[in-house]
Amino acid sequence: MATIKPDFDTRTYRRAKLSGLLQALDLFEIKLEGSQKFVRKKPSFAKVLKIVHDVIIDYRGLNEWTSINLLAIEIAKINPDFNPRIFGYQNIQEIIKAIDSKYFELDADKTRIKLLSIKRKINATILPCIFPNFLVQWLNNSQFFYF
């Protein structure tokens, strides 16, 4: 990091160490083994939104609603290696129900879902980034690193 941005100082972000800054951001998985901390970028939820969006467009009914169970089955067929546990959910239905309401609408029973606006771009950045872009680029250069 010192070679990429030598004037970077974690104290600017009210953190004494880089590890404290990374933990505060909640954008990374941090694993502690002995005295070493391993850091990996959390998977992007934008990919999930794109998959859900595409399946809803393919399987929605005349009234624009799609059954969440049908949606989960189709997502599992299209992406058999999709693992909802990496996002912190037990199954695809839980992920769908947790999606922010600015993209999709759930019915009162939470059994059906529809798009709020088909023309809305789903693949836009979802989470606002509160730290410099060079730090993101530096972290993206490796799958796992430790400090």
From TrEMBL:
Pfam families according to UniProt: OST-HTH
Residue ranges annotated for the HTH OST-type domain, each copy included: 4-31, 48-101
Highest taxon listed in the record's lineage: Bacteria
Name of the featured protein: OST-HTH/LOTUS domain
Organism field: Moraxella caprae
